[in-house]
Specification:
alpha+beta; about 20% strand; about 180 residues; 8 strands; eight-stranded mixed sheet
Length: about 180
């Protein structure tokens, strides 16, 4: 009788020990989860000065970066990574948009606009939306992920590894039927 009781109680005891003493050290995600919150939706401007709001992209996952128009090497690397991560999604890539919020009014290089065609390049100089992305390290260091409901939810580290970004985004696309 005691042997049967021990066999029945063993999984419960093992579960309690695992819960209290063997907690996982880290998450499976590469990007840093930020407390999900809906972004404000102020008007932004396209390069041709027409109005644009991020809410026009509702229903899509958005890879977003903020940077100056001169776009130094780090900026170009983020643009390249966003393009490659989107392309790596294969048939799911239509669910992902790329957005570059330009933090100043300086002109963009034509070659840069051609090279990253398909990226929505929006002027955000003086826009209150920039404050929504302000981590301790600065807004220009990261690539952000916005979910299809318009919530900021993930921030990739400075000089992010595109393979690990791809893995995070792929996992989210598989798990989500929205967007």
């Amino acid at each position: 009788m005691l042997a049967i009781a021990a066999v029945c109680l063993a999984p419960f005891v093992a579960a309690l020990i695992a819960y209290f003493y063997w907690q996982p050290q880290g998450g499976a995600n590469y990007g840093e989860l930020v407390p999900a919150h809906a972004l404000i939706d102020p008007p932004l401007r396209r390069l041709d000065q027409r109005a644009f709001r991020l809410s026009e992209l509702r229903g899509k996952w958005i890879l977003l970066q903020l940077d100056q128009a001169d776009c130094a090497a780090a900026c170009r690397a983020k643009l390249y990574n966003m393009r490659q991560v989107r392309l790596a999604q294969g048939r799911e890539m239509e669910r992902v948009e790329r957005v570059w919020l330009i933090l100043d009014e300086a002109p963009l290089q034509t070659l840069l606009m051609r090279e990253y065609d398909g990226t929505r390049m929006l002027r955000a100089a003086g826009s209150p939306i920039v404050a929504e992305f302000a981590p301790a390290g600065g807004v220009r260091d990261h690539v952000y992920l916005i979910d299809p409901h318009g919530n900021l939810m993930l921030r990739f580290p400075k000089n992010a590894d595109p393979r690990r970004m791809n893995k995070d985004l792929g996992r989210l696309l598989r798990a989500s039927r929205i967007g």
